[in-house]
Design goal:
A four-stranded mixed β-sheet has the order 1-2-3-4, with helices on one face. With about 170 residues, the chain is of the alpha+beta class. It is built from four helices and ten strands, in the order βααβββαβββαβββ. The chain has two domains: about 90 residues, Ribosome hibernation promotion factor-like (Double Stranded RNA Binding Domain), CATH 3.30.160.100; about 50 residues, 2-Layer Sandwich (SHC Adaptor Protein). The longest helix has 25 residues. A hairpin with a 3-residue loop joins strand 3 and strand 4. Helix content is about 30%, strand content about 35%.
């Protein structure tokens, strides 16, 4: 992790810079892919400001805090960064893919003689609906296929997602 410390209107000692770097090193336990941390410390009349920018592999976090004391401003800014990192990590942990309905049970069959692998069979009960209704239903779910009974022809049809993003319809020939 590279730490860049710059100041405006003040100077800070090497000891203080090392102390700030040690505080930020604790963030590496939460987020190990930190690339760079930019710190801007500034002094105005009766207030001190610490601006921290943490650049990680896929995200950038920013915190700026102002206080009467420089150490308090840095501590508060580091705590804000820790909170942001924890929130992102919790959000990623809790993320679950959306499901519209319970998944259908799948069973695998033993492979036939030869180099083929096992075949996964999924049993579904086709519901009667029009093609337009099937398209709407298909867009609600995340499945690649939708098997339905065409209400007009009373035949089983398959609606599928094409590689180019469009939809395809498989109808049996009478």
């Amino acid at each position: 992790m590279q730490v860049i410390i710059s100041t405006r209107g003040m100077t800070v000692s090497k000891t203080y810079k090392d102390a700030v770097t040690r505080k930020l090193a604790k963030l590496e336990r939460l987020l190990p892919k930190i690339v760079e941390v930019k710190i801007v410390l500034s002094k105005e009349k009766h207030r001190r400001t610490a601006g921290l920018t943490l650049i990680a592999k896929h995200r950038t976090f920013r915190s700026e805090e102002t206080a009467d004391d420089l150490a308090a401003a840095v501590d508060t800014a580091v705590e804000a960064l820790q909170r942001q990192v924890r929130e992102i990590k919790d959000r990623v942990k809790k993320h679950q893919p959306r499901r519209e309905s319970a998944p259908e049970p799948a069973r695998s069959l033993e492979p036939a003689a030869g180099p083929e692998r096992g075949v996964v069979v999924r049993q579904v009960t086709p519901k009667p609906m029009s093609v337009e209704e099937a398209v709407e239903q298909f867009h609600l779910g995340r499945e690649q296929f939708l098997v339905f009974t065409n209400a007009l022809t009373d035949a089983v049809n398959v609606l599928y997602r094409r590689r180019d993003g469009g939809l395809g319809l498989i109808e049996p020939v009478a």
